[in-house]
């Protein structure tokens, strides 16, 4: 790279200090001659670029925005061209690149589905009228306590007001729980409490089995990804293992970016049982032979992040992480990375780019992560729910594991119930429970059922004729809908469903990374048409045409699914002519 | 077939493609016309415009032919209903959001409108109330203008300025979604940025969003006459690298300078001297 050109804006003392907390003291200059500071070659620069996102977080938190001087400072320290760093900073919702003119915390109010139906827009207006700095946010992953808020701190920690209350799940204490069984029982801040509640038994069992048998067990269990795509986990792990066996270094990543509107399961899991994710990631590392574990957690989850940081630190102190952590010669450590407000960064390859310090733009596939993932190296990326399934599989054995669920969808699933049910919250139920039964578990519908959004904004609406649908991968697929990430968002006849559908269209328009034409412009046009509210046959035809192109020609799943909810709403007559 | 090539089928024809080459390369050797916009022979494929998509048997979605390496046994359709539909929609979307009046399919050496007509793209279907890119014209120096209302966000200029050629990294994509655009840091004016005025971004831009000031002014005066221009090929006289130059001459005046993208010294890239330093040839008194 040529020498960087850095403009004359300089960082304040405070900005430099904030950056130093993440990057360490400025001792990375190798040679200093007059004005010229040499910081080492290409290798070194590549090795440090992944610190860009944490450094931008530090600047944002310190000053309330990313100033030209602050950006220059980070660019100099990391040897990143300022234009590229600016491109990264402007990619994320949580970063500002204009001076807000004051130094107050910002209250983000979720305006998506469940919150939109619970007065979020009114709350937003009220807070603003009261003089607060507010920001309309996409789903904050707290749909069970709508309307949700998140306070982005300034020179202090971020905070979720609702976190000050004790958290309980509706099924607390239910002996049949698997994934949620420790929630409310274990002390999430104490590794000993985790051990006393069966923690690390699965890791022990994994090491008795050895990597080969372990991967085979996961394959045989029929475990499939819970992040939305339902890809067989064992196949993924085996592919990475095969790469490691050829001598390549590999990564395992927990994708806790959780930004699919209506989804909050990973948050509840991590906040209340963080060690389980640490243990599961260790097992994934052991199985695949990876030496680096990463947890990418969404930026709006301060409590989950704090709990995870503590859990990782305790695990490290306890010798579970670090040199030879997974046996002689198998080093393993975990790095936590915070997202900064971008739904698309939950897409696995966008997530890699985000960690690496680039814009969170998805990559074209193939090549797939199992061969070319994080830093171009083999990577097994999984959703936290997928990972913690392995704990139960190991401690109870495969036959017990498969006693619940169906042949093609074994075991249990976490369902995020929100909206018009009596008891919104996170539920664990076996695959195969019907939609109607699940709604009953949540106390039944509040009011008269109008529609259920299955699988989130990327999923689709169903109506009461689907109440008998068994919630399995195969049955939902057969009936043209999806389980996705387990979202079950309920709307009753009082809800303004037209506004909800329009908001979903807006969500995709806001969250498209903008890289590929079908999605960048298609999501914009779709929102314009749906938002205008005139849905005659001509417009519906146009939406179908746009949807076909987005589904076929977009780079990533965001574009592929951006029309699902809108089209299903039209089919059901929730919007458009039948309305 | 041998070890250094693979055999694929394109629209029913069997085609041999060298290992590592793309489906697009296969289409070209089979004589199958394929539109491209963000692709350039001298750049890493960004595969973002999606106008080159084709149908590959066994693939759930369409595949960008410009970046996807051909694999043994691939069965490719370039003129199926799905392909024609997606290509039409991409061209239509672009036409509805951006001024594509000067956009060109460089590989095909034709105006993009040729393809829009071919696929029946009708950007007016979205009405006239739709959001369009609305960026002020940037004229910050005498050498080239940036008129981002014409930008299709093909990433070519970013690649040429960055690690595909110049390694200056003066410009990057900033913002997100429909609001994404090409920018320097904090939108600094080019003369205050890292830009070294090699003009390689201008050379690769397929839309006229980046344009020599000479060309821009002539176009504005409705006096840009490619049919009256001739191209003189010469070697740059400044240094010993030996870059080949193509001087585009209209009315005995140089109006822009390019270099052949397949030239083995330049791959189409020049420095500020070869690109813009020709005023001495035609002194103005
Ligand atoms: C736009 C988009 C957002 C996504 N967000 C998430 C997410 O927040 N969490 C997640 O686990 N998977 C998400 N995914 C799916 C991931 O790409 C990937 O399939 C998943 O993390 C793999 O883990 P699994 O096999 O355990 O499900 C997203 C996909 C897309 C296209
Ligand atoms: S589909 Fe949308 S989000 Fe995905 S790469 Fe394309 S523009 Fe980006
Ligand atoms: S300015 Fe030109 S080269 Fe750059 S992205 Fe836009 S259209 Fe492409
Ligand atoms: S264009 Fe620049 S590098 Fe090339 S020969 Fe001329 S002066 Fe040398
Ligand atoms: S937090 Fe509001 S819909 Fe999820
Ligand atoms: S030419 Fe292939 S995606 Fe643009």
Question: Short summary of the structure?
Answer:
The complex is a heterodimer of chains A (about 575) and B (about 280). Chain A is of the alpha/beta class.
How would you explain this protein's 3D organization?
The complex is a heterodimer of chains A (579) and B (285). Chain A contains 24 helices and 14 strands. Chain A folds into five domains: 2-89, no CATH class; 109-164, no CATH class; 191-401, Rossmann fold, CATH 3.40.50; 412-492, Ubiquitin-like (UB roll) (Roll); 497-571, de novo design (two linked rop proteins) (Up-down Bundle). Chain A is α/β, with parallel strands linked by helices and 579 residues long. In chain A, the strands form four sheets. Chain A has a five-stranded mixed beta sheet with strand order 11-10-14-12-13, sandwiched between helices. A four-stranded parallel beta sheet of chain A has the order 8-7-6-9, with helices on both faces. Chain B is an alpha+beta fold and 285 residues long. Chain B folds into three domains: 5-79, Roll (Ubiquitin-like (UB roll)), CATH 3.10.20.740; 84-126, no CATH class; 144-281, N-terminal domain of TfIIb (Single Sheet), CATH 2.20.25. Chain B has seven helices and 14 strands. A five-stranded mixed beta sheet of chain B has the order 2-1-5-3-4, with helices on both faces. In chain B, strands 12-13-14 form a three-stranded antiparallel beta sheet. Classes of the chains: A alpha/beta (579), B alpha+beta (285). The interface between A and B is large, with 50 and 52 residues. The complex binds flavin mononucleotide (FMN), iron/sulfur cluster (3 copies) and FE2/S2 (inorganic) cluster (FES) (2 copies).
Write the layout of secondary structure elements.
The complex is a heterodimer of chains A (579) and B (285).
Chain A: H1 13-23, E1 31-33, E2 36-38, H2 42-49, H3 52-63, H4 68-78, H5 82-89, E3 106-110, H6 113-116, H7 120-129, E4 133-137, E5 149-152, H8 191-196, H9 201-209, H10 211-221, H11 233-245, E6 251-256, H12 265-272, H13 274-288, E7 292-297, H14 302-317, E8 333-338, H15 348-356, E9 379-382, H16 384-396, H17 398-401, E10 412-419, E11 425-430, H18 435-441, E12 449-454, E13 460-462, H19 473-478, E14 487-492, H20 497-511, H21 517-532, H22 537-553, H23 557-561, H24 564-571
Parallel strand pairs in A: 3-4, 6-7, 6-9, 7-8, 10-14
Antiparallel strand pairs in A: 1-2, 3-5, 10-11, 12-13, 12-14
Helix pairs in contact in A: 1-3, 1-4, 3-4, 9-13, 9-16, 10-11, 12-13, 12-14, 13-16, 20-21, 21-22
Chain B: E1 5-10, E2 13-18, H1 23-29, E3 53-56, E4 63-64, E5 75-77, H2 81-97, E6 104-105, E7 110-111, H3 112-119, E8 144-146, H4 156-161, E9 172-174, E10 181-183, H5 200-204, E11 210-212, H6 213-220, E12 230-235, E13 244-250, E14 253-258, H7 272-276
Parallel strand pairs in B: 1-5
Antiparallel strand pairs in B: 1-2, 3-4, 3-5, 6-7, 8-11, 9-10, 12-13, 13-14
Helix pairs in contact in B: 2-3
The structure holds flavin mononucleotide (FMN), iron/sulfur cluster (3 copies) and FE2/S2 (inorganic) cluster (2 copies).
One FE2/S2 (inorganic) cluster is lined by residues 110, 112-115, 139-143, 146, 148, 261-262 of chain A.
């Amino acid at each position: 790279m040529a020498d960087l050109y850095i403009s004359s804006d300089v960082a304040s003392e405070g900005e430099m200090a904030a950056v130093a907390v993440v990057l360490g003291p400025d001792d990375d200059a190798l040679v200093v001659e007059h004005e010229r500071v040499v910081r080492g070659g290409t290798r070194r620069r590549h090795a440090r670029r992944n610190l860009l996102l944490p450094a931008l977080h530090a600047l944002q938190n310190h000053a309330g925005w990313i100033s030209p001087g602050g950006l220059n400072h980070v660019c100099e320290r990391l040897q990143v061209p300022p234009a590229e760093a600016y491109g990264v900073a402007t990619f994320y919702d949580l970063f500002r690149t204009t001076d807000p003119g004051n130094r107050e915390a910002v209250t983000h109010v979720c305006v998506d589905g469940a919150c939109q139906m619970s007065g979020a827009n009114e709350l937003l207006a009220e807070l603003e009228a009261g003089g607060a700095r507010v920001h309309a946010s996409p789903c904050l992953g707290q749909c069970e306590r709508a309307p949700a808020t998140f306070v982005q701190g300034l020179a202090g920690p971020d905070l979720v007001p609702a976190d000050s209350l004790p958290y309980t799940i509706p099924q607390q204490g239910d002996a049949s729980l698997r994934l949620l069984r420790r929630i409310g029982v274990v002390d999430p801040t104490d590794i000993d409490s985790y051990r006393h509640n069966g923690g690390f038994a699965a890791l022990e069992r994994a090491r008795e089995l050895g990597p080969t048998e372990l991967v085979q067990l996961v394959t045989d269990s029929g475990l499939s990804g819970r992040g939305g795509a339902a890809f067989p986990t064992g196949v993924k792990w085996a592919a990475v293992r095969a790469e490691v066996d050829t001598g390549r270094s590999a990564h395992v990543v927990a994708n806790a970016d959780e930004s699919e509107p209506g989804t909050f399961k990973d948050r509840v899991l991590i906040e209340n049982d963080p060690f389980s994710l640490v243990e599961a990631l260790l097992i994934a590392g052991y199985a695949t032979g990876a030496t680096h574990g990463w947890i990418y957690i969404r930026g709006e989850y301060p409590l989950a992040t704090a709990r995870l940081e503590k859990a990782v630190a305790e695990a490290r102190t306890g010798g579970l992480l670090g040199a030879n952590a997974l046996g002689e010669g198998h080093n393993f450590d975990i790095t936590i990375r915070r997202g900064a407000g971008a739904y698309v960064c939950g897409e696995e390859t966008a997530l890699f780019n985000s960690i690496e310090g680039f814009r969170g733009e998805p990559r074209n596939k193939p090549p797939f992560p199992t061969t070319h993932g994080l830093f171009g190296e083999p990577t097994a990326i999984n959703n936290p729910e997928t990972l913690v399934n392995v704990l139960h599989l190991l401690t109870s054995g495969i036959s017990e594991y498969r006693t619940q669920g169906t042949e093609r969808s074994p075991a249990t699933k976490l369902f995020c119930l929100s909206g018009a049910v009596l008891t919104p919250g996170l539920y664990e139920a076996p695959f195969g429970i019907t939609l109607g039964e699940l709604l009953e578990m949540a106390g039944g519908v509040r009011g008269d059922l109008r529609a259920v959004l299955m699988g989130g904004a990327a999923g689709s609406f169903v109506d009461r004729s689907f109440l008998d649908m068994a919630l399995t991968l195969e049955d939902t697929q057969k009936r043209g809908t999806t389980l996705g990430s387990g979202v079950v968002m309920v709307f009753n006849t009082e809800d303004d469903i037209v506004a909800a559908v329009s908001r979903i269209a807006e969500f995709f328009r806001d969250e498209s990374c903008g890289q590929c034409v079908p999605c960048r412009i298609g999501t914009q046009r779709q929102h314009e048409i749906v938002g205008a509210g005139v849905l005659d046959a001509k417009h519906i035809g146009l939406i179908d045409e746009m949807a076909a192109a987005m589904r076929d020609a977009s780079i990533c799943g965001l574009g592929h699914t951006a029309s699902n909810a809108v089209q299903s709403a039209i089919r059901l007559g929730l919007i458009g002519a039948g309305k | 077939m041998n070890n250094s090539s693979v055999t694929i089928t394109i629209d029913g024809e069997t085609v041999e493609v060298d290992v590592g080459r793309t489906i697009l390369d296969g289409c070209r050797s089979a004589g199958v016309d394929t539109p491209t916009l963000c692709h350039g022979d001298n750049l890493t494929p960004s595969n973002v415009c999606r106008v080159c998509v084709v149908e590959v048997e066994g693939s759930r979605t369409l595949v960008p032919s410009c970046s996807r390496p051909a694999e043994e046994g691939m069965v490719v359709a370039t003129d199926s209903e799905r392909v024609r539909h997606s290509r039409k929609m991409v061209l239509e979307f672009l036409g509805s959001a951006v001024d594509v009046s000067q956009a060109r399919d460089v590989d095909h050496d034709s105006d993009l409108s040729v393809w829009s007509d071919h696929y029946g793209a009708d950007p007016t279907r979205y009405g006239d109330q739709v959001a369009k890119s609305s960026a002020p014209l940037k004229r910050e120096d005498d050498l080239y203008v940036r008129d981002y209302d014409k930008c299709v966000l093909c990433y070519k200029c970013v690649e040429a300025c960055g690690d595909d050629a110049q390694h200056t990294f003066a410009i990057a994509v900033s913002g997100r979604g429909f609001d994404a655009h090409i920018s320097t840091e904090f939108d600094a004016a080019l003369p205050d940025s890292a830009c070294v005025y090699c003009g390689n971004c201008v050379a690769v831009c397929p839309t006229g969003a980046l344009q020599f000031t000479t060309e821009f002014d002539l176009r504005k005066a409705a006096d840009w006459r490619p049919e009256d221009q001739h191209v003189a090929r010469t070697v740059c006289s400044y240094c010993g690298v030996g870059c080949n130059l193509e001087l585009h001459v209209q009315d005995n005046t140089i109006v822009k300078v390019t270099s052949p993208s397949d030239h083995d010294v330049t791959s189409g890239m020049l420095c500020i001297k070869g690109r813009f330093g020709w005023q001495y040839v035609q002194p103005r008194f």
